[in-house]
Amino acid sequence: MADPMRIRAQASGDKATVRVLMSHEMEAGQRRDASGNLIPAWFIQEVTATHNGKVVLTAEWGPAVSKNPFMQFSVKGAKAGDKIAVTWKDNRGATRTDEATVS
Question: What is the pLDDT of residue 42?
């Protein structure tokens, strides 16, 4: 299981800024190991964010995204105490969901 995501959500006016740091190796499948064999691709394919259970963001990623990706987005109408959840799924079928409370 992957390490937990670090999610910070801060309200400012009528929106909240959400910052997410995901822990994932994100291998593109183009590098070779010491023996000259291709390292298989392993990357996050789908990212979904919800605000109090309602989907506010969906993204489809590919192998070009860097290791331990960082993502930032804004949620209009979010206020202190609301819940923001972020879920990712990689090309091997692994998934991770973490949640934060807007401060």
Answer: 95
